[in-house]
Amino acid sequence: MDTTYTSPVINKKRATIVLIGLLAVTMLGGPAPALAEEEPPAEPPKVELVLDVSGSMRADDIDGRSRISVAQQAFNEVVDALPDETQLGIRVLGATYPGNDKAKGCQDTQQIVPVGPVDRVQAKAAVATLRPTGFTPVGLALREAAKDLGTGTTARRIVLITDGEDTCAPPDPCEVARELAAQGTKLVVDTLGLAPDEKVRRQLLCIAEATGGTYTAVQRADELTSRIKQLVDRAKDTHTAAPAVVAGKSACDGAPLLAPGVYSDRAAFSEHRWYRVPVLPDQELRVSVSMALDRPVNPDYAVLLRATATDGRELVRGVDAGSGRTDVVSAGLRWSGGEEPTDEASPTPDTGTTVEATMVCLVVSNAFAPRQGTQATPGMPVELTVDVVASSPAPTAPDLGRGWVLLVLLTVAGLLTGLVTGLLTRWWVATWRENR
User: Fold this and answer.
1) Are residues 225 and 252 in the same domain?
2) Which chain regions cross the lipid bilayer (predicted)?
3) How many domains does the chain have?
């Protein structure tokens, strides 16, 4: 057994030497690598409920109860079931001015619960005090609700509950919805109608379509509660980064240069919008475009997406892509950089040398035609998704796509198959005769 004794002094000296060595290595090696920065926390989903409290909400035609009492019950149940991460606000219109002065009545909209983490007791108490009172300034309420929700990197949602059309236009609520959509902020307005009126239906449908939302006609109390809960919960699904606003040009020359990402634009009826994307030889370009039918258009319409070279030669033409929605028309395309001679040099990150990139021109064309009386401005909403990925490796020889090579291979295969079949047949016949 080893009984060697090590002095504590020697241990201290060794420890000191080791410590000095570690410090030297650290100094020679430069500063320690910085820790990766944590991603900032995502913004919470934000929703504002906008409730019509005008005089017509006194009507007792929903399950034998007044429209306002049904709406109050629905709000209470929604507040109780609200997900903790969702920030909710409540705005009302027509709730305070009982007089006949239209100028005053059409300014009657207030936020009774600010957008943020909800104090359930406070929110339900504020809703309980509402009494049907005045006019119906829907357009103004939508503008103010958009301000309540603010701006940011993620989507916002407004849920409008009303039983009548706007009685204060201008501003026309449908035009307000289009203005909000044209600002580039990802704002979705869902509408719920409490009265079976065709004018109300058309107005609420127009508001919803302009912002990519939905319209629902409500006839029962349980329908209202269920639908509001669905829309509030859906805010988590639309809680995504807002597309970057971009303005396409009328020609490829000078068109905006797009990196991988999601972009929003506006296109006039029957217009061509151009964009540019550089693609390296070992990359594949993938693009999709969607246009929303946010206003009445003639039934014959289409969207065409094409990729061209800078000299106008068409590289590939997109194909229609079904989205499952009747208010959106989509198309998509794929193109590999190795399919076209390059025309622009780009430095490679690994070697510092340059590799020629192809400047691809993207053009989005539409064949929309407005119906009689439809507003032409602002343009139709366009959403463009651009991605550039590593291209799939091309198959090596033999190249079965080339005509002569394929013909020769098929001929040789046929001859070999016939030869083997003949030999096997002769062997089988000879064996059968011997066994007889």
Assistant:
1) no
2) 404-429
3) 2
- State the pTM of this model: 0.58
Q: Are residues 254 and 348 in the same domain?
A: yes
| CATH code of residue 66 | 3.40.50.410
For 405-430, give one letter per residue: b (16+ CB within 10 A) or e.
eeeeeeeeeeeeeeeeeeeeeeeeee
Structure tokens that stand for 395 in this block: 């198959």
144 lies in some domain: yes
* 128 inside domain: yes
In a domain, 138, yes or no: yes
Q: C-alpha 420: how far from its chain's center? A: 60
| Best CA proximity match to 336, nearest among 384, 287, 396 | 287
Q: How confident is the prediction along the chain (436 residues), in pLDDT tens digits per residue? A: 444 444 443 444 444 443 344 334 333 333 433 333 444 557 889 999 999 999 999 999 999 999 999 999 999 999 999 988 899 999 999 999 999 999 999 999 999 999 999 999 999 999 999 999 999 999 999 999 999 999 877 788 999 999 988 999 999 999 999 888 877 667 889 999 998 888 898 999 889 888 878 888 888 999 999 999 988 988 877 666 667 889 999 999 999 999 999 898 999 999 999 999 999 998 999 999 988 777 778 877 789 999 999 999 999 998 776 554 556 788 999 998 776 554 554 444 455 555 678 999 999 999 888 888 777 878 888 989 999 988 765 544 444 444 566 677 778 888 888 788 878 887 877 777 777 6
Host domain of residue 362: 244-390
